[in-house]
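Need residues for this backbone.
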């Protein structure tokens, strides 16, 4: 996601090199790992709520 946003070439080729590209890729991967560990985006919660709503299950009800 970050790599796609960076494709806008903000700043041009001033800081473009193989080393910089590798660093940015590693930085993006680390950020993605941290976001996944902490739930920074809350996607899992949103998906869970959406699925529960479509199955007509209330919070805390396991459906049994």
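Answer:
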């Amino acid at each position: 996601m970050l790599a796609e946003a960076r494709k806008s070439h903000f700043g041009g080729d001033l800081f473009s090199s193989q080393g910089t590209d590798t660093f940015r890729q590693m930085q993006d991967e680390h950020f993605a790992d941290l976001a996944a560990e902490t739930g920074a985006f809350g996607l899992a919660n949103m998906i869970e709520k959406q699925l529960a709503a479509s199955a007509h299950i209330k919070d805390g009800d396991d459906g049994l």
